[in-house]
Amino acid sequence: MKNYVILTASAKTPYDYWYREAKQRIEEKGFEVVVPYLPQNEHQNYKAWARVILSYFKAGVINKETTIIAHDVACVFITRVLVENKLSISGIIAVSPFNTILGMDNDNLNKSFITRYEKLQKVERFVKFYHVFTSDNDPIVSTEETIKFCESVKAKTHELSKVGHFTEIEKFDELISLIDNINEII
C-alpha cells in the first residue's frame, strides 16, 4: 500500500512549518503518513538519523511503495541512506535541498550529512521519481547549489515564487497537487 514519510528540516519537529498540515491532507486522501522525530541538537548527525530511518525500513514502514517528502538537510540525508544501503522506495519529493556547508549556525549540525555528489547520482537506481521544490528567493540555499543538487539526482524541478526556504508557510498546496499527479501516474 502506498504511504508517505515526511522528514523534517534540521533541528525541527513534526509540528513545525507545513509538516502537520501536509500530513493531515495526505491522510485525508486515505494514505498512511509518518513524520518521525529525528534526533536534534547535539544528537543530530547522520549516524543517529540513519539508525532511526533504518529501523523504519526494517519494520516495513518504509518500503518500495513509500514516497519520502524531505526538507532541508533531510533531502541529502535520505538520498545518501538509500544509496549507501541499496534500499528502494517509490520516490522522493525534496524541498529546498542542499549538499554543502551553507555558512550558517546549523552547519555544525548539518556537516555529517554532506557527501560526494557522485554518490548522490546513484539514487536513480533506487527510486522511480525524484522531484524538487525550490524557491526563487530562498535565503539559505543558493540557486547554484539547488541546480547542482537537482542535476546530481536527475530531479524534476518545481520552482515556486517567493516562498523562501519553505519555513514561513503552513499550507503547501503545490506539494499536495504534485502528490495527486504522481498518484495518477504510479
Give your account of this protein's structure.
The chain is globular, with a radius of gyration of 15 Å. A six-stranded parallel β-sheet has the order 2-1-3-4-5-6, with helices on both faces. It is of the alpha/beta class and 186 residues long. It contains seven helices and six strands, in the order E-H-E-H-E-H-E-H-H-E-H-E-H. It has helices at 19-28, 46-58, 73-85, 107-110, 117-120, 143-153, 173-185; strands at 3-7, 32-34, 66-71, 91-95, 129-135, 156-160. The chain has one domain (3-185): 3-Layer(aba) Sandwich (Rossmann fold). Helix 6 links the parallel strand 5 and strand 6. It is 37% helix and 17% strand. The longest helix is centred in the first third of the chain and has 13 residues, at 46-58.
**Beta strand %:** 15-25%
Question: Helix segment count?
Answer: 7
What would CATH call the homologous superfamily? Alpha/Beta hydrolase fold, catalytic domain
Instruction: Please give the largest β-sheet.
Output: 6 strands, parallel
Average pLDDT, to the nearest integer?
94
Strands of the largest sheet, in order across it?
2-1-3-4-5-6
The helicity comes to: 25-40%
Instruction: Give the ordered list of helices and strands.
Output: EHEHEHEHHEHEH
Q: Mind telling me the CATH class?
A: Alpha Beta
- Specify the structural class: alpha/beta
CATH architecture: 3-Layer(aba) Sandwich
| End-to-end gap | 12 Å
Classify the fold: give the CATH topology: Rossmann fold
Indicate the radius of gyration in whole angstroms: 15 Å
